[in-house]
Design a protein that fits this description.
CATH superfamily of the largest domain: ANL, C-terminal domain
Structural class: alpha+beta
Shape: globular
Number of helices: 7
CATH class of the largest domain: Alpha Beta
Strand order of the largest sheet: 1-2-3
CATH architecture of the largest domain: 2-Layer Sandwich
Strand content: 15-25%
Oligomer: single chain
Order of helices and strands: EHEEEEHEEHHHEHH
CATH topology of the largest domain: GMP Synthetase, Chain A, domain 3
Radius of gyration: 21 Å
């Protein structure tokens, strides 16, 4: 995988090793008691313990943990996405309360479902002269562009590559709780430790995801052919 981080001319065309962090040694467990299947899932035949963490060797020889293996997927052009890193970058937007990013190996780009930050958006709408409640203002092109552009700016300032920036977003205003949250433990979109339940989110927003990818394809087809 290619180097990820702030641009450094000295690192041009260099590759930094990334992959699952595996550890081995006399201080590593021999396995789970009477749980052969669980043991086989984490200990291979060479006694390497697979941690499930994705690591990156840095130029100074140190190791950084950059994501969990289960949160890594590949886009159709072969680029790997550490989706939690993308979501953390997008969540820096003042207009975003919650964000779920989706992609798969059949698509070239990412899409996102966003629970908007009510107070920040309505305050900005007052400055822009846009009236209405949260659901009403979020249907306007101006507010949708406001949120999308700010998310993209946050992604860029966090050092994300172009393919890591969602190309379309769906702003969820229909199913928010009293705190303005769209993803909760109660609706099975969050685990008890407040991690996103990705399969459940895909099931919940399947139609919206399809619509976003349809919009992206239409925009790409409408682009004039390169000379």
């Amino acid at each position: 995988m290619s180097y990820k981080g702030a641009y450094d001319p000295a690192m041009a065309n260099c590759s930094i090793p990334r992959g699952e962090v595996c550890i081995r040694g006399p201080n590593i467990m021999q396995g789970y008691l009477k749980l052969e299947q669980e043991t086989a899932a984490v200990l291979d035949q060479q006694a390497w313990m697979h941690t499930g963490d994705i690591g990156q060797w840095n130029p100074d020889g140190s190791l950084s943990i950059i994501d969990r293996k289960k949160n890594i997927f590949k886009l159709s052009q072969g680029e790997y996405i550490a989706v939690e890193s993308v979501e953390n970058a997008l969540a820096k937007s003042r207009y975003v309360l919650q964000c779920w990013v989706y992609g798969n190996s059949f698509e070239t780009s990412l899409v996102a479902v966003v629970a908007p930050d009510r107070d920040s958006i309505l305050a900005q709408c007052a400055k822009m002269g846009i009236q209405g409640d949260l659901a009403q203002v979020c249907t306007t092109d101006a507010v949708q562009k406001l949120i999308f552009d700010d998310m993209t700016a946050c992604a860029r300032s966090s050092g994300l590559r172009g393919y890591e920036c969602p190309k379309a977003i769906f702003i969820e205003t229909r199913n928010l709780n009293d705190l303005g949250q769209a993803f909760t433990v109660a609706n099975d979109c969050l685990t008890p430790s407040f991690k996103l339940r990705r399969p459940q989110l895909l099931g919940r927003y399947h139609d919206e995801v399809d619509a976003m990818y349809g919009k992206i394809r239409s925009q790409e087809q409408a682009k004039p052919a390169a000379m």
